[in-house]
Amino acid sequence: MLMRAPHIILAAGGTGGHMMPAEAVAEVLVREGYQVSLITDKRGDAIDNALQDIERFVLKTSSHMGGGLLGKAKSLLSIAMSTLSVRGYFKKHHPSVVVGFGGYPSLPAVLAARSMGIPYVLHEQNAVLGRVNRYMAEDARVVALSMHHTTKVPVGAFTEVTGNPVRQLISKLSNIAYAVPIGFGDVRLLVLGGSQGARILSDVVPEAIKLLPEDLRQRIDLTQQARAEDLDRVVASYEGMGVRAVVKPYFPDVGALLLRTQLVICRSGASTVAELAAMGRPAIMVPLAIAADDHQHANASAVEEVGGGWIMSERDFTPEALAAKLEHLLTDMGDLRDASEGMRMIATIDAAERLASIVTSISEEEVPS
Questions:
Q1: pLDDT value of residue 341
Q2: Number of domains making up the chain
Q3: Full domain range(s) for residue 95
C-alpha cells in the first residue's frame, strides 16, 4: 500500500544565518498544510526569535569542530551518537524529506536520512558551499544555492539556484522604495555586527563618526548593535559628541530598522546580505576575517560586483578610512541611490517559495507505508 507522508524535517542550528532561512521555509510549508519539525542544537535552540511554534528535537552533543586527535575522536563520537539519536526520531516520525540548512545539526540529520533511504535537500546560504553541504552534496536530491556562482560545489551534485529565503516580514517590506537623504535632513545609519562580529564595529564606528565634519555629524541618526560588554563605552562615546544614537545588544525587528535606514555598516553573513538585498539597502561591509573558507568576503564580493555596496577589509577598516568613506557617501547621495538599485539586483524575494516548492514536490512522491 502506498501513502503520502507530509512530515518535513528541517535541520539547522548554530547561528541565525542557518536558522533564519529555515524559519522562512517553515512559514511557507506550514501555510500549505505540511507538518514541520526542526532538528537543532543548543545554540540554535537558544535563538529565541526563530521557529518558536515549530516542534523541535534538540541534539545534546557538541559541535564537530574539535581540535587535535582527542578532539577529533570526540567529534566523531558526537556525530555518531547524534546520528543514532536522529535515526530514532525519524523511526517515530516518518519524515518524507529532510532539509539541511548547514551548521552542526544538519550533518547528523542528513546522515540519518541517507542511511534510512529518506530523500534529503541541502540549502547553502553563502557564496561558498559549506563543509557539511560539501560532504553530503552528491547524494542530495537537490543542493539549493543562494548565488549563481557558488564555489566548492562537487561536480556530481544536482543544483538549483533558489536564492536565500528571508522571513515573511522582510519580503513584505521589500517593495517599499528606498528614501535618499534630502538636503540637510537626517541621515539614518544602521550598524549591525552579529554575535561574532560586533567588537570591531564598536571600536571603529564611533571614532569615525567623531572625525566627520560637525555639520554632517549632527545630521546623523544612528542605531547600532553592540555586545553587552561594549555597550556603556559606545553609548558614552556618542553622548560625548552629541550624536543621536540607540545602542543595544540585540534588535528583535531588523526589518523595521532597515525600512528607515539609508546606509548600513555591517558584516556580510548570508542572512544579512539577503535581507539587505530584499529591501535594497546599500551597505559598507566588513567581512569577518575568520569566517570558514572566507565565505563572508565571497558574499560581499557578490554585492560589490553589482554595485550594491562597498567592501572594507578588517585590516583597512580604520576610523580615518571609514570617516572618509562616510563623508563621500553622505555628501554625494547619488552613490547611495545607485547602490540601492544594485542591491535589489541580487535579491530573490520568492526564495522561500522556490525552496519550499522543491521540498514539497519531493515530499509528495509516493513512499512505502
A1: 95
A2: 2
A3: 2-166+349-368
Q: H or E stretch including 82?
A: helix 68-93
Q: Are 345 and 332 in contact (CB under 8 A)?
A: no
CA distance 184 to 301: 32
When the pLDDT of each residue in the chain is averaged and rounded to a whole number, the result is 90
User: What digits encode the pLDDT tens for the residues 10-32?
Assistant: 999 877 788 899 999 999 999 99
- Are residues 43 and 110 located together in one domain of the fold? yes
Q: Is the pLDDT of residue 172 over 50?
A: yes
Q: Which residue has the cell 518535513?
A: 8
Domain co-membership, 201 together with 91: no
Predicted local distance difference test score (pLDDT) of residue 368: 44
Q: Are 309 and 339 in contact (CB under 8 A)?
A: yes
Cell 548593535 sits at which residue?
225
Three-class DSSP category at 308: coil
Ramachandran angles phi, psi of 367, nearest 5°: -125, 155
Q: Which helix (H) or strand (E) holds 207?
A: helix 194-211
